[in-house]
Amino acid sequence: MTFVKISEQSSLYNDLEKKPVGEILRDINAEDHKVAEAVGRTIPRIEELVNKIVTRMKRGGRIFYMGAGTSGRIGVLDASEIPPTFGMDPGWVIGIIAGGDTALRNPVENAEDDKLQGWKDLEKFDINTNDTVIGIAASGTTPYVINALLECRRNGILTAAITSNPDAPICHAADIPIEMIVGPEYVTGSSRMKSGSGQKMICNMITTTVMIKMGRVKGNKMVNMQLSNAKLVDRGTRMVIDELGLPYDEAKRLLLMHGSVKRAVDAFNGVECND
Fold first, then answer.
1. Among candidate residues 139, 99, 133, 196, the one with its CA nearest the CA of residue 7
2. Which residue in 31, 112, 185, 243 is the catalytic one?
3. Is the pTM of this model over 0.85?
4. Handedness of CA 210, 213, 219, 225 (dihedral sign)
5. pLDDT value for 107
6. Which of 9, 36, 106, 275 has the fewest beta carbons under 10 Å from its own?
7. What is the DSSP letter of 186?
8. Annotated catalytic, 112?
9. The pLDDT of residue 220 is above 60
C-alpha cells in the first residue's frame, strides 16, 4: 500500500472566510461526528493493547505517551489526569512531549525532527520491558516519536502508535498500530481538530479501561480519586453513604480520616487495604 497522508489533504469545505459563523460551526460539528465512528473502528487494536498493558502493569510496568505539538500535549493531558481521577502515583502513566515542558505552551523549534532525543527522554525513566510506549502522531511521520518506538522494539519494549494516516511510517515502527482515519480536517492540515479529538478519545479509552482492570474503580465509581477540592470531597462522601448507609457528617469524617472512598469503606468493614 502506498502511504497517503490523508490528514494533509484539502478540506472538503472551501471559502471558509466567506461563511457565516453559524454555518462554520455546523460544518465543524458535522465533521466532528465522524470522529467517534473512526475511533470505533479501532477498538480491536485498542483491546489488544489494553490487555497487554494490564499484564505488564501488574508486574510494575508503566505507560508512556510520546508526541510532538498537539499530539504530545494530548498525551501529557491524559497522563496528568490519572492521579486525581484514580489515585495512582504520577509515575504510572507518563506523558513526554518533544521539546519538554516548554513545548506544552510554546512550540520548540525542530524538536519533533530530533531522531535521537525521544529515546534519550525515555532512558531518563529507566524504561524496561514491563513498560509500554504509545507514540501519538497524526501525520505518522514524526521522527522524534518514530525512532523512539524503533529503539523500544529493539529493547523488547511493547509499543503502540496512534495516527490519522493508514500505513504511515509510525505504523511500521509500532507493535500495535492504531489507525484512526478521520479524513481531511475542516481547516486543511489542522490536526488539532478531528485528529486531536480522536487521539484524546483513544487515550481516555486506554487509560480508563486499564485503571478499571487494575482495580481503581468499583461498580462505576472513582473510589480512589484524590480529595483535592470541596466538590470531590462531597462526591466521595456520597459514595461512602451509598456503600455504608451512614449519615452525611459521619461519612465525610470517615472519608477525610482515611483519604479515599475505598480506604474508608474497607476500614469501616474491617478489610485490610493494600492500595
1. 139
2. 112
3. yes
4. negative
5. 87
6. 106
7. S
8. yes
9. yes
